[in-house]
Write a structure and sequence with these properties.
- 45% of the residues lie in helices and 16% in strands.
- The chain has 304 residues and is of the alpha/beta class.
- The protein has a single domain, classed as 2-enoyl-CoA Hydratase, Chain A, domain 1, CATH 3.90.226.
- The chain starts with a helix and ends with a strand.
- The chain is flat, with a radius of gyration of 26 Å.
- Helix 2 packs parallel to helix 3.
- The strands form two sheets. Strands 1, 2, 4, 5, 6, 7, 8 and 9 form an eight-stranded mixed β-sheet that branches.
- The chain contains eleven helices and ten strands.
């Protein structure tokens, strides 16, 4: 009798534990589906003509999240045009250039209309990207421009001396430790870094001139790092039309022969959920040794 009672108890424990596990699994699944619903809905192929929307937001450090989106829309015949929704102060030199080239390929090789709609900020590297489009829209109060290059780092040599610490650097090559934060630049090092920055600045000016189909001298005349309002930039021919995002979409739709409201298609965003953190790879969320040691000079098309 006691054995039978224990068996029944174990059976109920197993059933209860299984039910609890299924309940927890269902909750995690529901959370996952809800969080991903927006991205899935945005990527559905609805009826009617479609315009792809790519968000260029924040500091541009990695082109890997933007370039594939542009390429996908560029190769999709159902997407009649692409609007890059810009809200960025710019970012890395090479990262900005890669996105610029992706936009230019779609515009020139795929012959697909690509436009930029600048919201709050479309400066430096973000303007670099926008200049490759067929048309740039901006609000009256948008911040536009900042055609320039910047490199900054912190020199903590005085702090080391105060703490009676010594920097020990072994090198082969006179300029190998140029930009070391433990000491001042030598005149030769300063000239060397300035030559790199000047070359990048020339590349920036040329890219804008090519993208805007303007003269190099005309762009160089305003490439002093200043920013302007959208209204000022329009008068300087740095933007083509003063319009908000909705007006930019409507104007683009007309330009590609879409009658009525187009279907806006957004790329599906890769969202991290609690389930991903519990069961997936979390290494990208943890500080890496190479990031902790990173202290080299960085060059940026960035408005600060």
């Amino acid at each position: 009798m006691a054995d039978e009672k224990r068996s029944r108890t174990l059976l109920w424990i197993v059933i209860g534990g299984g039910a609890f596990f299924l309940f927890v699994l269902a909750v995690f699944t529901l959370i996952y589906l809800v969080l991903h619903a927006g991205g899935e809905r945005s990527s559905l192929h609805g009826f009617g003509d479609k315009i792809g929307v790519v968000d260029l937001e924040g500091v541009i450090l990695d082109p890997g999240s933007i370039v594939p989106q542009l390429k996908k829309f560029g190769e999709d015949d159902s997407i009649k045009a692409i609007v890059i929704h810009v809200n960025s102060p710019g970012g890395g030199v090479a990262a900005s250039e890669e996105i610029y080239r992706a936009v230019k390929r779609i515009r020139d090789e795929k012959k697909k209309r690509v436009v930029a709609s600048i919201e709050s900020v479309g400066a430096s590297g973000a303007y670099y990207v926008a200049s490759a489009t067929n048309k740039i829209y901006a609000d009256n109060g948008s911040i536009v421009g900042s055609i320039g290059v910047i490199a900054q780092w912190v020199n903590y040599g005085d702090l080391l001396r105060w703490a009676k610490l010594k920097d020990i650097t072994l090198k082969a090559g006179t300029f190998k430790d140029t930009g070391s934060p433990t000491r001042d630049l030598t005149p030769a090092e300063q000239a060397y870094l300035q030559s790199l920055i000047d070359n990048m600045h020339t590349q920036f000016i040329q890219a804008v001139a090519d993208g805007r189909k303007a003269k190099f001298a005309d762009i160089k005349a305003v490439a002093d790092g200043k920013v302007w309002t959208g209204q000022q930039a329009f008068a300087m021919h740095l933007v083509d039309q003063l319009a908000d995002f909705e007006a930019a979409v409507d104007d683009t739709a007309k330009a590609v022969g879409i009658s009525g409201k187009p279907v806006l298609v957004h790329p599906e965003k890769d969202r991290k959920t609690l389930l991903d953190l519990l069961l997936g790879d979390v290494s990208e969320w943890l500080p890496k040794r190479e990031k902790l040691l990173e202290q080299q000079v960085g060059f940026y098309y960035l408005w600060k």
